[in-house]
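Sequence only, no structure available. Ideas?
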Amino acid sequence: MLIAAQTCSMNVALATPHPRYVYFNFFSERLNREIPIDEDQKSTSLSRLLFRSRVRNMVSPEKLLYKQPSVLVGRTDVVSVTPWLAPIVWEGTFDPVLVDNIYKPMNLTIATTVFAIGKYVRFLQDFLDTAEKHFMVGFNMRYYVFTDRPHDVPSVNLTRGRHLSVIQVPGSNRWQEISARRMEIIQTTIERQIRREADYIFCLDVDSKFHARWGPESLGRLVAVIHPGYYEQTRDRFPYERRPASTAYIPMDEGDYYYGGAMIGGFVEDVYTLTKVCQTRFEEDAGNSIEAAWQEESHLNRYLLYNKPSKVLSPEYLWQDFKAKTKEVKVIRFSGVIKNYADVRPNV
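Reply:
I predicted one. Tokens follow.
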């Protein structure tokens, strides 16, 4: 597995190994340069991993002017808090000026993982270009692009404080296998690298674009997004895994929301725990010749049912281009693009 670590903006496409990249073997020997390894990585077992993430106080700058909040006036067409008192983030439920001024002085680094396997690499240019315009603007960003086609990673102009690493991973003849393997790869990359480099992490789907602000209002210990196809449905209509033999099983009379697998976020430590548990359960199912209905999304929903997210993002943060905007969705921030699955997937 090779990784190319970008330390500045990309100016040319990767037809050959880029001279500004540092190439090394991700899990064993370093190839062409000494790569710093933290002392905690040398001496700490994986059961005692150290993470950068920590809870911080919500400090507002003095003399900051923003609209006075009200306990009587606000959105009445949507629910903005879960039964366990986690916020559900909609347009009109937060003040972007106030939120930015609280979080930006913290000097946070956000990790973003994205998988561009096979023909899905074609979506990477628009994903990255729109992310640079709308996603966590003004924050330190580390993109981790997992691909089996590292030389097809496009040229992207990254702003100061934002970096991109290309990590080569194997391809597959089954999209289900690619989907299922994602948890394992994210878990391993957190262990080896991300935990030392970032405070928060978002795991996003590459076949998507950003259309409007996605900022620090989305940060939390464990963050999930409500799937746009099921937010108007009752739990008995959710496509949970319904077979009791699966470790992703959810009974018909249980369930809060149906969460989209195209976005997982939170403290690096909390997302690490999620991926580790889901991967263990996936392997247990595989040992019993079971593949959950929607692979990692099924295991994600099972995990989040019993490990409640601390913040829930509304479907504004995960729309679908083929869906018409509904009256309660005032802003589409992130949306899956229209595509021909027969063309981009190795199997349908």
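Helices lie at 39-43, 96-103, 124-134, 175-197, 268-287, 295-306, 341-344.
Hope that gets you unstuck.
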